[in-house]
Amino acid sequence: MVKHTQEVIRQVDCCARMGGEEFPVLLPDADARTAATVAERLRSALDGSTALAPAGVRVAHTVSIGVATLEPGESLAELIERADAALYDAKAGGRNRVVSAPPTRSAVTVRRKAGGAKGSLG
User: In the annotation, is 78 catalytic?
Assistant: First the structure.
């Protein structure tokens, strides 16, 4: 897992184990599109890779990824909650998928007030 992740993310990015089988990846200065692209590259890199299980059997990996970008006024806890919800949507949708969290209502309001221009969410 670590080898494949390091091959996909930048040196400024950070991957850590949050517990169980959850590994958040922080992508500083990445917008929603970039984050989704990196997530898909990571999913593809891990898809079909194998690990040796304790019984000596090779097990193929699949990866479900939830993507969320930090929005204006959003706390870290809220960001993690949205990413986690997207992760569970990916798992519920058949696993081995990338699902992006929808923007919060406040982010949509900010974009509308800016004249509909796309802005960085992260």
Answer: no
- State the CATH number of the domain containing residue 101: 3.30.70.270
Please state, in angstroms and rounded to a whole number, the distance separating the CA atoms of residues 110 and 106: 6
Contact call for residues 82 and 68 (beta carbons, < 8 A): yes
List the pLDDT tens digit at each of the 122 positions of the chain. Answer: 778 888 899 999 999 888 888 889 999 999 999 999 999 999 999 888 888 888 889 988 889 999 999 999 999 999 999 999 999 999 999 999 999 999 886 655 445 555 554 443 33
Prediction pTM value: 0.77
In a domain, 26, yes or no: yes
Please state the domain count of the chain. Answer: 1
Residue of 7, 21, 22, 74 with catalytic role: 21
